[in-house]
Fold this protein.
Amino acid sequence: MKLLMMETKETNSYKKLWLGLISLSSLIFIFLLWWIYAKEKGDAEGLTWVSYLPYLNCGLNAITSMLLCLGIYFIKKSERLLHRNTMIAAATVSALFLVSYLTYHHFQGDTKFMGQGLVRPIYFFILISHVILSMVQVPLILATFTFAGLGKWSHHKKFAKVTFPIWLYVSITGVVIFLFLKSFN
């Protein structure tokens, strides 16, 4: 009976955890939609540094991709401390990307893709998959880090197997989208 009560408490804790993670992720998504598409643009007059933010964003995405791959390498070599530190660095660089991305969109608004022909559906396929998976990755990253922080290693490992390829795809396609925009706009 005591074991059953412990399992029920743990199940309720996980339900609360998921409710919190999904609620937080939903709020982040709604905020991003509002920030990019609904709010008024800021005045960028005289702020030439804003035009360099897409380059910074591309670099941050590339660094995140490399850190993610390095983190996987370290865990496969059983270098847990290096893995932890590398994944924290990847999350930090991703957070810096988000701040830079939001800053750019505050001043510039949405960027239109001007490419025509076959490149257009290819670009939009990559963009749409990037956007959808970036929404999915938020609760996955939060859950993966939360389980690691709680020392729930079996859950952490299970989520990391799903989180890693999505996070890597979003980071790499962020670079690809930048290259498409710079090549065809």
